[in-house]
Design goal:
The protein is α+β, with helices and mostly antiparallel strands and about 210 residues long. It has one domain: Immunoglobulin-like (Sandwich). The longest helix has 25 residues. The two termini are about 45 Å apart. The C terminus is likely disordered. Bound molecules: 2-acetamido-2-deoxy-beta-D-glucopyranose (NAG) (6 copies). The site of one 2-acetamido-2-deoxy-beta-D-glucopyranose has 4 residues, from loops.
Length: about 210
């Protein structure tokens, strides 16, 4: 069998060589840039309204504001944020989508940026019995479990090279425990508990699938 040059040996070699070169260049690229994922944290939040009347017209009235802190821990990778959207959910049901209006910005190396989000309005929501129970339970505790998902449109800069804008396939999930603030007559706000800064889940934002060119 091993009788020297089978007609296809050379093409197998070429293919194999190409794969090795590709893997090596990927490894070198990785070693040069050492890309690390961005870190998203909800550093401050205030919830002033979260009303749902299951015997009324099934409308959720909500009003909250968030400070979302984005940290780029990279030494050699920068990120352009073209769009950040917040998708808010209670009991896995989405009640709001807000596109943050801050203009597109560039986040350089080792930098931290705070983005504010005002999420307010009303939404018709058909809660099941168990969702209403959850709402009632959390209402009496004064703290609501609200999940904010962040959808991004970003591009990365590796040295002089920029990728295209892309939307990371996965959304970043921030699972918040938001205490409802009550305004007293004299104007001071109080709540049953304090909001604790919450790290959002990690997803691949800057090493996302790259569709060529
Ligand atoms: C967010 O940050 C701003 C200042 O940048 C501050 O005025 C505000 O109180 C913070 N908190 C919330 C919940 O928006
Ligand atoms: C809910 O809506 C119903 C019908 O509109 C009303 O009778 C009831 O008082 C409302 N409950 C609350 C807590 O607002
Ligand atoms: C639902 O009811 C509230 C009062 O309970 C009212 O303010 C609101 O406009 C109603 N929404 C709709 C969509 O009918
Ligand atoms: C939401 O809350 C903010 C700050 O407390 C307030 O300025 C705004 O008027 C509220 N919006 C609604 C629709 O109640
Ligand atoms: C880092 O962020 C600060 C404020 O957040 C900004 O003033 C500065 O220009 C940024 N630096 C780079 C290199 O982007
Ligand atoms: C406002 O009222 C609350 C009780 O409702 C009280 O604890 C607080 O000290 C008051 N604040 C001021 C500035 O009077």
């Amino acid at each position: 069998m091993a009788r020297g040059c089978h007609p296809c040996t050379s093409c197998v070699c070429t293919l194999y060589g190409a794969m090795v070169i590709f893997a090596l260049s990927f490894l070198i690229f990785w070693l040069i840039f050492l890309p690390q994922e961005l870190k998203f944290t909800v550093t401050d939040a205030s919830l002033t309204r979260f009303d749902y009347n299951s015997t009324g017209n099934n409308t959720l009235f909500y009003n909250m504001s968030l400070n979302i802190t984005i940290r780029n821990p990279n030494k050699k990778v920068g990120v352009y944020f073209n769009r950040i959207q917040t998708l808010s959910h209670f009991a896995k049901k989405r009640f709001s989508m807000v596109t943050l209006t801050s203009p597109p910005f560039y986040q350089g190396h080792k930098n931290t940026t705070v983005v504010g989000a005002a999420i307010e309005g009303q939404q018709l929501l058909l809660f099941k019995k168990k969702d209403v129970d959850k709402y009632d339970r959390e209402t009496s505790a004064g703290i609501y479990s609200i999940e904010i998902k962040l959808a991004l449109r970003v591009k990365a800069r590796y040295g002089k090279f920029k990728t295209r804008y892309y939307k990371p396939a996965e959304k970043i999930s921030c699972k918040l425990k938001l205490p409802l603030l009550h305004k007293s007559i004299n104007g001071t706000a109080s709540s049953a508990a304090q909001f604790h800064p919450t790290r959002c889940g990690n997803v691949y934002v800057i090493i996302a699938k790259y569709d060529g060119a």
